[in-house]
UniProtKB/TrEMBL annotation:
<keyword id="KW-0472">Membrane</keyword>
<feature type="transmembrane region" description="Helical">
    <location>
        <begin position="20"/>
        <end position="48"/>
    </location>
</feature>
<feature type="transmembrane region" description="Helical">
    <location>
        <begin position="288"/>
        <end position="308"/>
    </location>
</feature>
<dbReference type="Pfam" id="PF13727">
    <property type="entry name" value="CoA_binding_3"/>
</dbReference>
<feature type="transmembrane region" description="Helical">
    <location>
        <begin position="68"/>
        <end position="87"/>
    </location>
</feature>
<keyword id="KW-0812">Transmembrane</keyword>
<protein>
    <recommendedName>
        <fullName>Bacterial sugar transferase domain-containing protein</fullName>
    </recommendedName>
</protein>
<feature type="transmembrane region" description="Helical">
    <location>
        <begin position="99"/>
        <end position="119"/>
    </location>
</feature>
<feature type="transmembrane region" description="Helical">
    <location>
        <begin position="131"/>
        <end position="150"/>
    </location>
</feature>
<keyword id="KW-1133">Transmembrane helix</keyword>
Length: 309
């Protein structure tokens, strides 16, 4: 095992209901926050500033609702494409969530500009878009922080934890992970048993899974044969259990890696990248979105420039 790093493959089986619940509930909550951002932007622009800064087109409440209500599902779809509803296997970090929210809202505002000005040729206050952008980032981010803190609090209380079985070979890093997962934590994992990776067999593991009902098997033995690792992986997947293991160097070179923080330990999650069928379509879509990142980051400045013209 590389010192200081844990490098793993992750094959996701059935996710804990707690994770799924928190991902699903974000959709209606985001819709409420987006609606709130639209409402605040409307009130600030057309109620509080109407006299000081006259608008090109003064929208009434009903007219404003008709113009903008259909944008909410479009924003939610953009949020989904940018990974705001992704179920993370190592928990969510507030700093990462802040970046995602900023990019998602900025992209959504940019699409709103394209729809209103490019397609529908709607005339209204451009300053309204800046307020929408600001309030949406603020409200959605605050909502995400509250949900992350709530989920972490539930984890500390032992609610919704993933039960983990560790298959190890006695390294120091493994001992640290074992200690961290044995204590109450905010990562959402609970170590329920430890077995020697050299002694465990696929047949024995099948009996262990049936008896202890884990959600995840974490194998950290790099010296185990590929045949045995594949057999153990199949036992896990056939029973709907997530399987995580340390690959050899060849696996790392051939597969994409993603850096994550796992109990303050740098961790590489290595996932396969299927490029057939839906996988290819999703990849192409994400490539297009990725090419717009530079425009996304600059979109608030474009709006400011538009106001000045």
């Amino acid at each position: 095992m590389t010192k200081g790093f844990l490098i793993v493959y992750t094959y996701q089986g059935i996710m804990r209901k707690n994770d799924l619940f928190f991902s699903l509930i974000l959709v209606p909550l985001d819709s409420i926050m987006i609606s709130g951002a639209f409402l605040l932007a409307y009130l600030v622009r057309f109620q509080f500033e109407a006299t000081a800064l006259p608008s090109v087109k003064d929208l009434g409440a009903s007219e404003f609702t008709a113009e903008f209500i259909y944008l909410i599902p479009i924003w939610i779809i953009i949020f989904a494409f940018l990974g705001l509803y992704k179920i993370n296997i190592v928990g969510k970090r507030i700093s990462t969530e802040a970046i995602k929210v900023f990019m998602a809202v900025s992209t959504s505002v940019l699409i709103t500009v394209i729809v209103l000005f490019g397609i529908r040729s709607t005339e209204f206050s451009r300053l309204l878009l800046i307020y929408m952008w600001f309030f949406a980032i603020t409200l959605v981010f605050l909502e995400r922080v509250i949900m992350i803190m709530l989920q972490r609090a539930l984890y500390k209380k032992g609610v919704g934890l993933k039960k983990v079985i560790l298959l190890k070979n006695g390294g120091k890093l493994e001992q640290r992970l074992e200690n961290d997962m044995s204590r109450p934590n905010t990562m959402g994992y609970k170590l329920i048993n430890v077995y020697s990776a050299l002694e465990i067999t696929p047949q024995k593991l099948a009996k262990v899974i049936a008896k202890e009902k884990p959600d995840l098997i974490l194998q950290t033995n790099t010296k185990q044969s590929e045949e045995k690792s594949i057999a153990i992986m199949r036992v896990c997947l056939d029973r709907g259990v997530e399987f995580t293991f340390v690959p050899n160097l060849l696996n790392i070179i051939q597969t994409k890696t993603e850096l994550a923080d796992f109990f303050s330990t740098p961790l590489f999650i290595v996932r396969g990248s299927p490029l057939e069928g839906w996988g290819r379509m999703v990849k192409r879509t994400m490539d297009i979105i990725g090419s717009l990142i530079a425009i996304i980051l600059a979109s608030p400045f474009f709006i400011i420039v538009a106001l000045a013209v």
